[in-house]
Structures are given as structure tokens and as C-alpha cells.
User: What shape does this take?
Amino acid sequence: MFISSSLSRPEESHAVCSHLVIPMSVSSCNRQIEDAVLTDGTSVIALLSELSQTSNSSTWAQESTALTISARYCEPSGTSPRRDAVQLLVHGITYTKDYWSALGLSGDQSQLYSWVDFAARRGYATLSIDRAGDGASSHPNPFHVDQISLHAAVANHIAIQLKQGQIILGQSFENVIYVGHSLGSVIGVELATTYPDAVDALVLTGFANLSASPSPLVLNTGLLPAREAYPARFGNLDEGYLVTSSMSARQKAFYGRNGTFDPKVSALDFSVQQTVSVGEMATVRQLKVASNYSGPVTVIIGEQDAAFCYVNETSDGLGPGGECGQGKTSPPALVSALFPAASTFSATVLDDMGHCINLHYRAALAYTVAHDWMDEHVC
Assistant: This one.
């Protein structure tokens, strides 16, 4: 079931969009994490470190959760030969569905940064969602409910409904293409592991082989309880929902070197940021091999991605920060080990681009790579 709240076509856009609310009840196997008292950055980092050290001895249990998911469905303004395909777009930490729509920018900037508009020009419909815990979607318990497994269960539910014609009335989709960014890509791996038949293809952006510990640049973004950092925006949230409090540190973690992005976009990104939950941070590295997923997979990442390919930190923005490399032993290529039964696997590393590929000057190149791949392997 869905509720449509509005219909819009932004100026100069090639997409006609409607805003939806999708109610659901899902069950997921979650890590049991007790609620904690978090008051400052020190307490946040201490808890995340403890949870990282105890991950192998943690207890897991089934959680049943009722949610509403806020979504935006966009389709090409004209007729399309790809009417039977839809992209399910799932954002990363501290974002909403607007990550896929140029952070809400309009005009020429929307044309430069909007994945949704690019997809419409290539004939693809998209369904971008606010993940549980972000934006206008439900905010479940941020410790033992809002975790990677919950997000995978939500994606599975939505994929089923898209194929059955229960979200877009009168339209059932033969092919659901899962497109993730960062944590959204981690969720895509979990989806393929737990629900191997849910989607027909995986496009994983801002993602590479997970190392033993998170990038220090991500942990050093000044993580604080959202309600303490920005009480006017997040005062009603549980303290287990976190935000980044340092704009410069966030820029180092999420962007490439100086000159690869517009500083005004980075500043906007910081000002409109959403949250990441303790539960998400504590389960991001619990990935298993998706042995039974047999569809195609592609990884697309910026060469300077400091979140997944951290090398070292530089103060001037001109040094390595992130360095993903090339070849079969590079971190992006090693993702293939998670998909031994995939019909095809590829990894593309793009120069002059950092972690959040959608927010760089060369975003359209990433979009072209992704849609050329979809044209070849899905539609």
C-alpha cells in the first residue's frame, strides 16, 4: 500500500516525481545492543570502540518492526523502452533520498549532480527512499533495531511490492535494480545474502572491500548525539542517533582532494545532513558472502575514497587521504569475493572523485558508467 502526497516536475528536470509513504512490518535478525547514555563525542567513540571489539561475541535475535518509509518515485517524462525496470536507490549515512536528487539543488546544479534526473534521461524510473532512521521515515530504536539487517528487510519488502505492482498502482516491474551508496551498498550486500532473489542487479557505489576497522576519517568527523548537537532539528530523537559536527573533517572523509568538488556543495551537504545510528555503525562490518545471489554486480567508486580506501590524512586536501588503486587486488575489485555466484562482476575506479561520487564535479561520469552497465546487463 502507498499514500501519494504530491506530484512534481522540477524546472529543467526530465523526471516526473511523486512522493510516497510506504507502511510495512518487517522482521530481521539484529545484534542485541543495550541502550546507552551518550552525552558527548567521548562517550560516542568509547561505545563504538567497545561494540567493535565485542562484535564476534555478540548476541543476535529476531526483531519485528512496524515502519513507514518515505519515498520519491520518479519516471521519465516521455515514453521509455525500459518501462519494466526500476532502480531502488538507497543512500548512505547522514543522508536522505535527496542524495540522489542533488541535495535539493535546482537548475544547472541539479543537472550536474542529480542521479534521478540522469536516470530519467536514460529512460529509467527510480524509487529513492529515506532509510529507516533518516528524513521523513520512521525512527526506530537506534541501538538494537536500526541496523543493517533491518534495512535489508525493508529493501526486500519494497522490491517485492515493486514487482507485484503494490507501490506504483498499475505498474509492476520485471526488473528491480538495487543501487546503493556507501552504507546503502553494505545493505545491498546484506540483501543479496539474506534475500538472494529479491533484486535483479546490484550497483554498489562508494563501496569497497571492508577492512578490519573503520576509516579514522569517518570516526573523526566529530560524531555527537544529534539531539545534543542540533537540538532544534533533532531534539526529539533518541541519543543513539548521531551526526557529524566538524565540517572540515566531514569534507575530508566524504570528498576528494581540493578541486574535485565545489566547496559550496560541501557546505550545503554539512548543513542539511541527517543521522547515523549506533546500531548501523555496530553492524556495518558483519557482512557474509552472498553465496546464492546469481545476478550481475558492479562496484563504482572514486579513486580518492577515504571512507573505504583510507591511506593517510593530509591537512591541505592535496594529499592521498583515500587511494583505491586499480587491478584485481584493489579494494573495489576484492568485493567480487562476496559474490562467488554472480553472473558477472565489474569494478570501476574513477579518477578525481572521493567517497560521495554524486557530489563531485565528475558525477555525470559515474552516472554514465552505471547506466551503460545497466543497459548491457539488465535492460
Observations:
- The longest strand covers residues 15-31.
